[in-house]
Design a protein that fits this description.
The protein is an alpha/beta fold. It has twelve helices and nine strands. It has a five-stranded parallel β-sheet with strand order 5-4-1-8-9. Strands 2-3 form a two-stranded antiparallel sheet. α1 packs across α4 (80-87) and α6 packs across α7 (157-171). The protein is globular, with a radius of gyration of 22 Å.
Length: 257
């Protein structure tokens, strides 16, 4: 069974269904007078809806990989530093859980270290980047060159974290590093001297690699389509957000409201 490391961008884009409150105006009659009031309804939105169409087509493959994991056809792992980076991004409020509720394994640390959490005189993320910039591990330095984390004396934070996640994936001996950062995929493909020791792929690349290696079969696609038709991407019925969503139709404004 193949193992896939999920980076921050893949987890972020997988949160493609958010149940959020929206407000609208309605006129009601009370005490013989008309009043304009503001009401709330809960709706499901896709945070990826404004992205380019071709890119969104790639993102549509992410639920397939989660389904393959649930069926025992694929092992998914990530790392606590990915979770830490994800926590700094806008919340997803996805009732299905992280990466469509698939079970995610924990990749081991690439080397022994302690995590800076907080302090009165420094920002934790800034301190973490400073610590990373002082690590002289040869593999880490190689991956920093791949990602472009160092521009002279300037440290590019996002690329430095990419290099660390790649190092974690390499030392966990996974088969694929799945990312939706197409710039990182292009950088990995173009590098020869500082190449990664793990296959860096976007969703389309992972699909092709699994098919080429016969790790993806027709019955897997059929199984996924049946699952999708049954669930339609909805979350668990008992989840509080799903319960709020069911109240939506009664709150929807009528024509002319």
């Amino acid at each position: 069974m193949r193992t896939v490391f999920l980076d921050t961008s893949a987890l972020r884009h997988a949160a493609d269904r958010r149940i959020v409150p929206t407000t609208y105006q309605k006129t009601i009659t009370w005490g013989g007078r008309q009043h304009a009031v503001e009401l709330v309804r809960w709706t499901a939105i896709d945070p990826n809806r404004k992205l380019a169409e071709e890119f969104r087509k790639q993102l549509l493959l992410l639920p397939l990989f989660a389904h393959l994991s649930r069926c025992g056809r694929l092992a998914l792992v990530t790392h606590h530093e990915v979770h830490w980076e994800l926590a700094g991004l806008p919340p997803s409020h996805d009732s299905r859980g992280l990466f469509y509720g698939a079970e995610l394994g924990d990749a081991p640390d690439p080397f022994h270290y302690g995590r800076v959490l907080a302090g009165p005189l420094f920002d934790a993320d800034t301190a973490w980047l400073r610590i990373l910039s002082e690590i002289n591990d040869p593999d880490f330095l190689r991956l920093q060159k791949l990602t472009g984390a160092r521009q002279g004396d300037v440290i590019i934070g996002h690329q430095m974290l990419d290099a660390f996640h790649l190092l974690t994936a390499e030392r966990a001996h996974v088969d694929f590093f799945l990312t939706t950062d197409l710039g990182l995929v292009r950088a990995a493909r173009s590098q020869r001297r500082h190449a990664a020791k793990v296959a860096v792929v976007d969703p389309k690349g992972l699909l092709g690699a699994l098919a080429a290696g016969r790790d993806l079969r027709l019955r897997d696609i059929v199984s996924y389509l049946r699952y999708w038709m049954r669930t339609r991407g909805a979350g668990p019925e008992g989840h509080p957000l799903e319960q709020l969503l069911k109240l939506g139709p009664s709150n929807k404004p009528k024509a002319g409201d």
